[in-house]
Design a protein that fits this description.
- It is a single chain.
- The protein is mostly helical.
- The protein has eight helices and no strands.
- Helix 2 packs across helix 3 and helix 4 packs antiparallel against helix 5.
- The longest helix has 33 residues.
Amino acid sequence: RHTLGNGMRQINLLLVPSALGLMVLATPITRLVFARGAFGALSLHLTSTALFWFAWSLPFAGTNLLLTRTFFALQRPWIPTKFAMINMTVDLVLSFALYRPLGIAGLVIATAVANILMTAMLLWRLRIGFNQRLDLAQTTMITARILVASVLTGALARVAWLGLNAVVGSSTVGQIISVGGAVVIAGGFYAWAVLSMRIPEAHQISGLVRGRFGSGTV
């Protein structure tokens, strides 16, 4: 239970700010990576829209991988398999329902909703199996701090990109500077914020990084 809770909090620590970053920089990132040649304005709009909505499901997708492997470790592989079938059914039904009114966004929203539902089902089943709370109270408290830091980080990333973009322009080199600079500035702020909030998982990861690159320990 402790290992599972710690793993979920570490996933949230890394993927929640990543999701917020993808949301606020969806169009600049898509333009930098793809917008050249036959990839025009419509392609840019469709791809950045898909990226924005996909970002919502990123933390849940990461948690699903951990929870699925937990069931395999407990030698109960049929449980996540059954839930995966429900996940695919929900995804398919919602995709058909949302595509006409929302277009490509509807398809990605359907996947995000199915991933969120999958996470809820896996947690519910694990809680029943363990007959415990799985450290969910601590995970919720830590995730709330992570969310606050991530929202501030996302806002800073957007402001930093707008400022840099106004200075360096929209050339390929300019986009590399503006997007890369925004990511570096926001990433540095996020690292400072979560360490200042004394989030244990942040100090765990910081210790691992220092151990790997500082003292050379493997």
